[in-house]
Amino acid sequence: MIEDAPHPALPFNPLHAVLDKGLLKQCVHCGLCLDACPTYRLLGHEADSPRGRIFQVRQVYEGRISPDDRDFRTHIYACLDCRACQTACPSGVQYGQIVEAARAVAEPPRPAERTVARLVLGTVFTRKPLLEVLGFGARLYQRSGLQALVRRSGLLDAALPALGMIERQLAPVHGSLVRRPLPTVQPAIGARRLRVGLIEGCVMPQLFSDTNWATIRVLAVNGCEVVVPPAQGCCGALHAHTGDPDSARALARRNVDAFEPLDLDVIAVNAAGCGSALKEYGHLLAGDPAYAARAAAFAARVRDVSEVLASLDLLPPTQAVPLTVTYQDACHLAHGQGVRLQPRKVLGSIPGLKLVEMQESDTCCGSAGIYNLTHPDIAEPILKAKMQSIRATGAHTVVASNPGCSMQIAAGAQRYGPEDLQVVHVVELLDRAYGGAAAWRRARQRQTKRDANAP
Amino acid sequence: MIAEAVAPVAPPAADALVHALCAVLPAERVLWRPYDLMLYEYDGSIERHRPAAVVFPLSAREVSEILQVCNRLGVPYTARGAGTGLSGGALPSPGGVLVSLARMNRILEINPENRCALVEPGVVNLRLGQAVQPYGLSYVPDPSSQKACTIGGNVGENSGGPHTLRYGVTTNHTLGLEVVLPDGAIVQVGGASADCPGLDLVGLFVGSEGTLGIVTRIWVRLIPIAESVKTLLAVFPTIDAACEAVAGCIARRIVPAALEMMDNMVIRAVESVNPAGYPVDAAAVLLAEVDGLRDEVDAMAGEVEAVCWAHGASDVRMARNDLERARLWAGRKGAFGALGRITPDYYTVDGVVPRTRLPEVLRAIAAIGDDAGFRIANVFHAGDGNLHPLILWDADVPGAEERVVAAGAEIMRVCAEAGGSLSGEHGIGLEKRDLMPLIFGEADMGVMHRVKDAIDPRGQCNPGKVFPTAGRCLEIFARRGMAVGW
Amino acid sequence: MSSLELPIWDAIAPGDPAAVGVDGVVPRYHARPASPEGVATLLRACAERGLAVLPRGGGTRLGIGNPLRSLDLVLDTGALDAVVEYESADLTITVQAGMPLARLQAVLAEQGQMLPLDPPAETASTVGGVVAANASGPLRYAFGTARDLVLGTRVANTDGTITRAGGKVVKNVAGYDLNKLHVGGLGCLGVLTELSFKLQPLPASTRTLALRFDTVAAQAAFLAAVVRSNLGPLAIEALGPTASGAAGLGERRHVVLRLGGYPHAVERQASDLPKLATNHGGHLVENADGLWDRVRNLQVQPAANLLVKAGVPISATSATMEQLQERLADFAPRVWGHAGNGVVYASASADDERTETLAELLAQLRQELRGVDTSASLVLLKAPLALKRHIDVWGDAGDGLPLMRSVKAALDPTSTLNPGRFVGGI
Predict the structure, then answer these.
(1) Contact assignment for B204 to C180 by CB distance below 8 Å
(2) pLDDT tens-digit profile of B158-209?
(3) Beta-strand (E) ranges in A143-210?
(4) Within this chain, do residues A297 and A192 fall inside the same structural domain, yes or no?
(5) Which residues of B touch C162 (CB under 8 A)?
(6) C219 with C109, same domain?
(7) In chain B, what is the straight-line distance between the N-terminal and C-terminal CA atoms, in Å?
(8) Which of A176, A385, B48, B77 has the most CB atoms less than 10 A away?
């Protein structure tokens, strides 16, 4: 310990307001989490291990060090929040809640990090129209050839290195330039088995609109009526991860309001990071009497789309998808939600598809929200190792379940190969096996006819 | 005594120390600021000691230079792997240097033809297992902390694990070592070849708890992965019945690969955190694993099953696939941690008794708990007679500490009287050094002392571990329980 | 017998010094203490008087080691031959060091158990002697050597104390594992008076397979395959042509496998291992009764006065066998080895005229083996005195020698025990 006496300059300990000491006490400092932590493995320093971070938070909790301590802030923000330690922990310590509480009382250590966080999260993600404009701009930039030109010139790196860093993460993604908005309600094809609310996401519609469409199609052909309430918005995951619980709570309330009246069986989400945050709404809004119970009810309905699909008796796909693929376990799916088998089960139902497991598929790719922007020095070696694991499988298609991972891995492929690597969502492959958009149009026409002929 | 032989380093000397260390290592691999040192004052045990500096060498040569600095300045030093140890072996001496081997973590060579691998001490146990698996080979010792603990730490503590029942502990799988001796000399003892002439120094170093030098390379033995494995879960209405089934297996000449027992408290804790499918109303379950050729595994599993039924098992289940097997084992491997859910604090005791004495010893341990007013949970390597009673307590209750101390010592006394030992795999470290007289006489300890002095005449190599302190008795261990005192 | 004017006279039972000499040296005294305390008292008395002591068990391995610098008393442990504690259900036993290994095995066999330590000539050998000499046999492939089987020891020290290390339980990490220093320590640090062992059930069924190979390459390829396989024989013995002849197999290269365990498993091994041999150009040959005993006793060859043991990495076993066969060709060697362990033996007859040539040859072989692996060794387990005078029987003990000297100085400061016999003149 630094001092035995509580910190004299701290009459009020802000951590006490946001963190239950019981969560800290659950840690028995056995150290079983160490090797699961990507930053500990890279840096080899106890301060950058889950056990070490909990220890530091405990020191702040007990007033031995200040939350403003620069070292404290550095180590707390160096965490990827990938939750691999939660999988490793035999005591069931809720590490994510601890680190997010710590971030709520401690500012990011680097000015650039604060700027990026404020800019990206505070301004962009909370405003849908702005996202729309920037999303179109990004797609245009990627597809017009301007991106290639800028990259070849090296101008951006010379002029604005920070922006260059952000630019490099903007990997070319597939999909259409002009995005087609999702329907508010998509009826089930055939008999309705479930009424499913869909989380549209904030980045997803902009850069991964095809994934959302594929999600709607595979759910609908499997008897799900899909509802996409327009009033929904960003889930607030990144805000919670980066020490802005107030924004996270505001966003959570908006989503609870948007979905609550719809009488849904489940709420499906195709982005792992969002799913993990949505499932924690009950905890996030526990202190809000008006919302606590409603948020818990909301959270209880949330499922990753692979969970929904795996729970259904899937309509057998007809078209072979002759690809060798490898599956990246998104941190917030595998560690955050314990969902590992379901996506693999869905992949296993696709004819012609061969899944080759990569080493350490559940190790973080380094994306971690905006971590790759704020901590490129740590994120880059983590990404490099991930790309090596991917290359070793021989697969040229990676299946990922989170937009952040998809962009990061696509960016990694550009830097470390293989250059022809495709990153796709599990629902896109299933959609292909069902015949994709073309088969979908035919199915819908048949359905419309049937409906018209019905008495 | 060794602990007192080295005076704590005063602050000015500490500066000289840091300067001297920075002269032999790049500054970024020397930690000396209080904030950073704070992170190295704990390990998996209950004790806390803050180092004067933490260094991260990358080679034996650097370790040697660090030791020479320590020798010059009269500073004690302690090697640390992942810091998962439960007896405080990797905690620094007051004012001492902590030598973290976490970054010396390369697997240097895997040689399937010689069935051995050469690794650096910071390699994580499980990662070695994963690396040799594609060759159809395995590294046997599998402590419950295997996903984090290092081979170097395993060598220091002579670690065991469930699968050492049939195949032996770390010392049986260590072929050779490169060691930096206390005088800074780098020596190789043993190696890939059989039967090196002279004294078995490899055998001496393994389990010496880092008190004779710092290991920088390890030649480990690998064995072919068995063709077939079967895992059974046997459910018992009483602990006695489960114990008798263990003795029954041994008596029937069955030596399973692993034979683990968990009592009801442990079963319930495991099921509440990470359900493994153990029946929560059972008094005890035995987790047995047999391996070998598929032709014999069925027969062995059948015999184990028959023994369990014969000793009153209420159910015996066989894992049907790898997934079920992994789930049964995940429960066992996570059992210690899971107790964090049912108690504010717990204190892990590690003792060994002859397998035939298990029923009476477990009864005696339960009685100790009753007398002292503590619940005691049991999860242990039954086939080896290696007990792990976990005393559940609450540090917030005034006076509980002393009673936990006394109960732990009492359990050790029962083990010693049953013809057993103070530790099967966690080591003596700081925790049990003052209990050593329970099993070793003055002359016995004297021989160990002479060996220590012969190899570390300055007494600077991880002092204060293993050997009893004069006068300081039992109050040192369990001063605070797990999870408290952070 | 000359008189010994010592207060410990009572501890000394009558014996015949001339019968217990080693390397041509006849001791002044031969003692056979009746208790561990007697051993300790005697050791202390000798240490105080500067007398040199040679501990002796069954006398089957006294030829191991360099010639003693001096010898005054042979300390015979033969009177310490009791079973101290045997709890068969624990699969452990504690016996006194002078208990003959063969008698121990007979006691265990009654309970269907065994100590899986099978060095040759065990009729006379004592457990203490076998452990101190680190003698082993073919079963080490499956069960390890003495270091893996000894759980605890009681040792009489030269300061007159009797100390314990380890214990009686199968798993124990309390304190330094001093047992390891005495296993193979040749009684140079103290005299073993009591040992606790980990036992094994006797295999329900056993079988011996003899496989013949026409070329070195075929034999080597098969050995590499069987070592990697999980078919799990108890022992893998590789025999050169001469050794094969001695075992009654005909003078070709052979691999003899010992199988044991559940009958179904043995059946499976007996069917799969010959197939594996066939894949590598070998074939199963009929073997007569007693083959296994002949193989494990290949060392016992009264006519041979030279026995060397090479320790190499497992994969170098075949090459080392060939090397010894060729280089010692002039001495008509018998060469065989524990192929799953990297241990190769060669026995031969060395006449005094060619001592220097042989010494040079052996020194050269040592060099060559070191080139294969830095920890490789060539030890002379038996050699004529003339040869011992030309070459250190142990060879280079490596980096650890200074440490071994320190340990020796700490535990036997007066150099009372076996002076000069062990590595580096310890």
Answers:
(1) yes
(2) 999 888 888 999 999 999 999 999 999 999 999 999 999 999 999 999 999 9
(3) 185-186, 194-199
(4) yes
(5) 443
(6) no
(7) 29
(8) B77
